[in-house]
């Protein structure tokens, strides 16, 4: 029996006859390498990979310079799951025949399967150079580039990921996953219109992907198209009811538009998920404004979130020397070092730090808006690092290399945060401060700075961090905030007469129970109005509709357009009383009102977010404006509306004492904060 006859059987698909023929050849010529090779190839085609590897390896032993032998051995090894061995076989084949496009393509496939993306891209690229019109190679290269982009995206290297995905889509324009991930990159870069286009391209290719609908909703939210965002979240949940974070996003955006019809049901759903589905990705910030949510539930949510977000990171093991230093290096980490409430609160503290005892570094990963505040902040620090285009891992390395002793995270879990930087533990002491009114639920965060009201010692169980209590309020205040000339009531869109109740909080903080109190006040105080901050048209429509349903004319709700800080503070002087919200108080909004002489009526809650106004009122010397239930809250607001002399007394106290009360004593506040830093540092030095 000749080898040619055996090969003819093989090519005709007569596998049994071919195998018998190959074996007869080998009986007469046991060292016939080609017969062994083809017998092994036949075994591979029949799914007998062990035999294939054995026979082809024998053939290679007889003739070690045949590229096809190594290539087919690689096929069998790959099919048998021996990926590293297959990659080595393909490399040997390519040494013998470097211009074989199929071999480069097969090497790329094995490397891709090994998650060795960069070499896989190199292999596919070489295959494409050799065979530029091969559609399969183009697709494989596109998918490898997509995987490389995914890896860069996971590491926060957005610009590198962007390049990979754009190239991948040039090769494989119908790759829905690549369009989806490109959308994620554009969203991460703040290029929301382009992100929307990418997500919509992905949905044209795969309309039933719940994650894409959810992420499109996130982009539409950023673009202010909240009605469309809500529709996207609903569609995501229709496709996948188990996409729990879409439910959390839906709930939060319904709060932003003040649509309360599903509030109770969705709140209970989220509460159940937090307790029973620890891998449900419920953003902790969503929990702060939900009715009846306890601090224990907020903590549980934060712990779940930290576990999901941080445990997947490959973090280096940084080491630190416990040695006394002439100066403690403070690192302030934030996306809000521009025109933002956090900057307005902290600016003077940054300027007042004692440079003999502290060195300060800003790590700004937010945009440079070119504002006067940005210019002021860049001068306020010893070093100002603009790291907005740097990955989280690289920022962590920068913090470590700079030798930061205490890292102050001013964002927590608020929008556009990069809390994962803390998971790398680049500083020996890491602190949750100011930006997020709650625990981060993460072991990498050592301290949370509060005060005896927002975080009393008896509430320590609600925080994974150790509590540091400042003696007055935890909130700093800038005495240099600009104040324009006070406009007239007419210029503010207010009636010339009548009491002005003010509620300048964000709309997601306005909940039905508190709004019902506000409507009662309007009914009981003739000619009064409720002055709210303009947020979105859907909230205005819903609040006006709800007012009418509660017997109040819609025209008595007046919405103030957004203005610069100095203009906003100036017009706020036309308010008579600021009405606080619950369970999420007015924070900067409260101190703004007190700064311009407007009394604030609050109802103190049980969580950090619901106790801030009480802290500020205590530090400004007006604890009598703190109530503990909505009945007393309503009664106090009504009293001030009916007793102009009492209201005038409170306004006078605020104006006359503004420069002496603890809330606005920036110098003493900074010294108190520095004392806390000193205590943290000394405690760390003593740990053995």
Structural notes for this entry:
Among the domains are: 3-161, Tetratricopeptide repeat domain (Serine Threonine Protein Phosphatase 5, Tetratricopeptide repeat, Alpha Horseshoe), CATH 1.25.40; 328-469, Rossmann fold, CATH 3.40.50; 490-658, Rossmann fold (3-Layer(aba) Sandwich), CATH 3.40.50.2000. The N and C termini lie far apart (82 Å). A seven-stranded parallel β-sheet has the order 3-2-1-4-5-6-7, with helices on one face. Strands 10-9-8-11-12-13 form a six-stranded parallel β-sheet, sandwiched between helices. The longest helix has 21 residues, at 666-686. It is of the alpha/beta class. The radius of gyration is 33 Å and the shape is elongated. 50% of the residues are buried. Helix 27 (612-619) links the parallel strand 12 (600-603) and strand 13 (626-627). The protein contains 30 helices and 13 strands.
Structure at a glance:
With about 700 residues, this protein is an alpha/beta fold. About 55% of the residues lie in helices and about 10% in strands. Among the domains are: about 160 residues, Alpha Horseshoe (Serine Threonine Protein Phosphatase 5, Tetratricopeptide repeat); about 140 residues, Rossmann fold (3-Layer(aba) Sandwich), CATH 3.40.50; about 170 residues, Rossmann fold (3-Layer(aba) Sandwich).
